[in-house]
Amino acid sequence: MSDSCNTCSAAGTCSGESCPPELTEAQKASRIGKVVAIMSGKGGVGKSSVTGMLAVSLRRQGYKVGILDADITGPSIPKIFGVKDKANVVPAGVIPPTSSSGIKIMSLNLMLENEDDPVIWRGPIIAQILNQFWTDVVWGELDYLLLDLPPGTGDVPITIFQSLPVDGLVVVTSPQQLANMVVRKAIKMAKKYDPRFYGLIENMAYVECPHCQERMEIFGKPQGQAEAARSEIPYLGELPVDPALATLSDAGKIEEYQSPAFDEIGRRLAEELKKNVTLNPSKLNLKM
Amino acid sequence: MSDSCNTCSAAGTCSGESCPPELTEAQKASRIGKVVAIMSGKGGVGKSSVTGMLAVSLRRQGYKVGILDADITGPSIPKIFGVKDKANVVPAGVIPPTSSSGIKIMSLNLMLENEDDPVIWRGPIIAQILNQFWTDVVWGELDYLLLDLPPGTGDVPITIFQSLPVDGLVVVTSPQQLANMVVRKAIKMAKKYDPRFYGLIENMAYVECPHCQERMEIFGKPQGQAEAARSEIPYLGELPVDPALATLSDAGKIEEYQSPAFDEIGRRLAEELKKNVTLNPSKLNLKM
């Protein structure tokens, strides 16, 4: 035992072969049940809206929920929740602002002076920020922490899968074959890291004409169910393009959105998530 | 003069202070009028579709056009043009496949075994690939090379602005305020590199019900014209979500798409591009 073992949380229980990193103060003050990454590979399929609505749905079902906005260069989460408070930095770490229904939110946009300031950073700096969102944010006790991933299969998803203890994934797709091709890239990438897939949601499946109630499949014929079967992922359901959601999101009021289709998807996801819930403090260590 | 000056294309004309990089064989065989980056910052606003249609429109107007698909981890261009031939590597460089109307296309997807194989690469490797798409592809003579940028303000846009001789930008946005916020990040980022802005296009401005012809603003009230004025960028026009475009894109037949709205935008862009056209071989050097 070295001197540093005296203050280590794993003292006496570790194998002594490799020294786990010390827990930060923020991590000691946090307990997170499951870490769920929401990914699509393709941009603009409504992943951030779906992430927001999943958080709202889980919150309505009584769970304690946080969102880590991992889309560092294109963050949307604070805006759709109307969260304008800056993140508060205290000696123990960064305190995430809370939405009106009590969802804890951390996003780089909560640390910028103006919400439309760009962050012109290459991958290594973005990876470092992501790690800090994990190690230095005082999440407190959460049942579920949702990670809103950016598009692509580059630095951010690689860092998330390699460094953060992701329990599983929700995949968001849209009907266009083009989107499906790119989403399949993301699924194939994720499978290399062997996470659990909690489900696939097909967003933007159709639009309903408010005038004549015609159902229009504006991006082509929905194929989420077939894609889910093909990729062996539970199919959670389809969602329309709903102008009401766009309006509420722009107004920062996504928590007021009501949608029976989404309620059903939220219930199905909660069922998947409930399987093997663990409150595992050791997960708070970074893998790297 | 050093020995290497004997074979240098800039011999006798350079200041002698800094040695420009040697042109590659591929660059010696290429002459590109203008390099135009299509960017949005936000994913899924239809940037690749707009890039494809701009290329089609310029081709229909008689120009020689190429597309460099800079969305390395989420490439869409080959699919919408139905280009399935792999890129051909010869001693002089990489020969880009040509679409049915004669548009030259280079994309990482033309070098993968399966179109849905992911590339799980961090930024430095992606930057290297982008540079090679510039230095090692035999573009031949082109009036315009369009670069289809990925979402975000990270490695790819940084590399493009720092290393490639971009003449100017076309910005693609969509009505949602959320999208606008992220697009403004990209505009602010681009302005740091002082390029020319050829114009702003608002995509997905509305959907027309095929049953009752109701115009639905499914993502909110269009605000592209106001955003263009605010950012001091020429406004090129708005486009609807058109299921016919999605269907043709999925079938690899984007060149068959007919749209009066797009024709008008293509004509306006061509006007902007025609100002100060230069065929400048020295631009073929990387800036870095």
TrEMBL record, chains A, B:
Listed under GO biological process in this entry are: iron-sulfur cluster assembly
Q: Does the keyword Oxidoreductase apply?
A: no
The UniProt record lists the keyword Nucleotide-binding? yes
- GO function terms (MF aspect): 4 iron, 4 sulfur cluster binding; ATP binding; ATP hydrolysis activity; ATP-dependent FeS chaperone activity; metal ion binding
Residues annotated as binding ATP are G41, K42, G43, G44, V45, G46, K47, S48
Keyword entries, A-Z? ATP-binding, Hydrolase, Iron, Iron-sulfur, Metal-binding, Nucleotide-binding
**Cited InterPro entries:** Mrp-like_CS, Mrp/NBP35_ATP-bd, NUBPL-like, P-loop_NTPase, YlxH/NBP35
Function comment: Binds and transfers iron-sulfur (Fe-S) clusters to target apoproteins. Can hydrolyze ATP.
Subunit organization: Homodimer.
Q: Which HAMAP family does the record associate with it?
A: Mrp_NBP35
State the family it belongs to.
Belongs to the Mrp/NBP35 ATP-binding proteins family.
Which PANTHER family does the protein's record reference? IRON-SULFUR PROTEIN NUBPL (PTHR42961)
Q: What is this protein called?
A: Iron-sulfur cluster carrier protein
Q: Which organism is it from?
A: Acididesulfobacillus acetoxydans
Q: What is the lineage of its organism?
A: Bacteria, Bacillati, Bacillota, Clostridia, Eubacteriales
